[in-house]
UniProtKB/TrEMBL annotation:
Transmembrane segments: none annotated. The lineage of its organism: Bacteria, Pseudomonadati, Pseudomonadota, Alphaproteobacteria, Rhodobacterales. Residues 322-420 form the Amidohydrolase-related domain. GO terms for molecular function: allantoinase activity; dihydroorotase activity; metal ion binding. GO terms for biological process: purine nucleobase catabolic process; pyrimidine nucleotide biosynthetic process. Residues 53-235 form the Dihydroorotase catalytic domain. Keywords: Hydrolase, Pyrimidine biosynthesis. It holds the Pfam family DHOase. GO terms for cellular component: cytoplasm. This is Amidohydrolase family protein. Signal peptide: none annotated. The keyword Transmembrane helix does not apply.
Length: 426
């Protein structure tokens, strides 16, 4: 038994912050304590020193290098980065080498995860074989093997193939995660069209490509009745389509990358490749529209979309450099920017980081309530520091926040009541 006392409890389910403590036994929360209430006589007691205690983050869309690209990220290094970032569950992507498209590969991945990662790992599986967009995977067998949802990470270009996948998934009650970008318009683009992209001379794509991709996906969802999650919305033009789908009663949800909530196209500056992402960074107006959509609950989930790239892939001209950024360890302090800017309360932020991802995947986590798993993060929301990418625990160091002044960091992380991270004293 473990009791955490003298904490500010961030409760996303109740939408409140209150003083108190938590009693943990057998990997679960068994009791919430009021201020001054005595801890049980047995078990260890830990003083949280007035810091914030919240449900552990559930990060959907984490890329791991196993199998095939272990030199970029392993379950061991990703798990260490996740624990240091307050992420207690990584929902991993299938864009590996080979892709996670059959039960044998999925079972290998889960064995590796159990052996090497200190945090929970839930796998996504590919929607089509080899993620080639031609032939549907065995969704039923992959579900039985442990897949929690299905995605090709990129858009399935052929609408007939995508319709078949959605129809089959609907029959099984499986969740399909789509990447709403029109693939032909987006091909080769590395910036958002506009004056800034023109000044830099970069191949660009209109924000309308996202709306076109989303409109197509939602039309097919309406045809099939499937459960659908749009993984990374990034433009204001997509929001009306999302609203119409919900008004029509479709079972659709949406997410956004923390980078698209906290950065804009001007951060690319003089062709800094750590800021090359997919989709590309958008205008400040689009960034603010995404922030407002999260505040209003129109976009339910915030993720890091952790994408490790090695130095050779990033030390290239901007057009040729690989897209993506690591984010497991920077997700929490980057998200706290929204809190410090007065745009989101901590409970609302944790609703998007923990409670809503848990609900989407049917998990018990994401809550501070008796019976919930004791997956917790203790953090100081106010401590300032300058982020040094060399100190990140990920194998790859491609973060856009290198040498950026951050505010807020994790002090401790628990998974099923076991402490998996403790910040060392400076």
């Amino acid at each position: 038994m473990l009791t955490l006392v003298n904490a500010r409890l961030i409760d996303p389910e109740e939408g409140k912050i209150r003083e108190g403590g938590i009693v943990i036994d057998a990997g679960r929360i068994v009791e919430l304590l009021s201020p001054g209430e005595r801890a049980p006589a047995r078990g260890a007691v830990e003083d949280c020193r007035g810091l914030c205690l919240a449900p552990g983050i559930i990060d959907i869309g984490v890329k791991i290098g196993e199998p095939g690209e272990r030199h970029k990220e392993s379950f061991r290094t990703a798990g260490a980065a996740a624990a240091a970032g307050g992420v207690t569950t990584m929902v991993t992507r299938p864009d590996t080498e080979p892709a996670i498209d059959d039960p044998e590969v999925l079972e290998f991945l889960l064995r590796r995860a159990v052996d090497a990662s200190p945090v929970n790992v839930l796998p996504l599986a590919a929607l089509t074989k080899g993620r080639a967009g031609q032939e549907m995977t065995e969704i039923g067998f992959l579900t039985d093997a442990g897949a929690v949802a299905f995605t090709d990470v990129t858009a399935v270009a052929n609408p007939r193939v995508f319709q078949r996948c959605l129809t089959y998934a609907a029959g099984l009650g499986a969740l399909v995660i789509g990447h709403p970008q029109e693939p032909v318009l987006s091909q080769g683009a590395c910036a958002t069209s506009g004056q800034f992209a023109s000044q830099l001379g970069l191949p660009a794509v209109s924000p309308m490509a996202e709306r076109i991709g989303l409109e197509r996906d939602l039309a097919l969802v309406e045809m099939t009745g499937a459960r659908y999650h749009a993984d990374q919305l990034s433009t204001a033009r997509s929001l009306p389509a999302l609203r119409r789908a919900r008004e029509a009663g479709l079972d659709v949800t949406a997410g956004v990358s923390i980078h698209h909530l906290t950065l804009n196209e001007f951060d690319v500056g003089d062709y800094r490749t750590f800021f090359k992402l997919t989709p590309p960074l958008r205008s400040e107006a689009d960034r603010m529209a995404m922030v407002e959509a999260v505040m209003a609950g129109e976009i339910e989930i915030i993720g890091s979309f952790h994408t490790p790239r090695d130095e050779e892939e990033k030390r290239l001209p901007f057009e040729e450099a690989a897209a993506g950024a690591v984010g497991l360890e920077t997700l929490l302090p980057a998200a706290l920017r929204l809190h410090h800017a007065g745009q989101m309360t901590l409970p609302a932020l944790w609703r998007a980081l923990a409670l809503n991802p848990a609900r989407l995947l049917g998990l018990e986590a994401g809550r501070l309530a008796p019976g919930a798993p004791a997956d917790l993060v203790l953090f100081d929301p106010d401590v300032p520091y300058v982020l040094d990418r060399a100190k990140l625990r990920s194998k790859s160091k491609n973060t856009p926040f290198d040498l950026t002044r951050m505010q807020g960091r994790v002090e401790g992380t628990w998974v099923a009541g076991n402490r998996v991270f403790t910040r060392e004293a400076a």
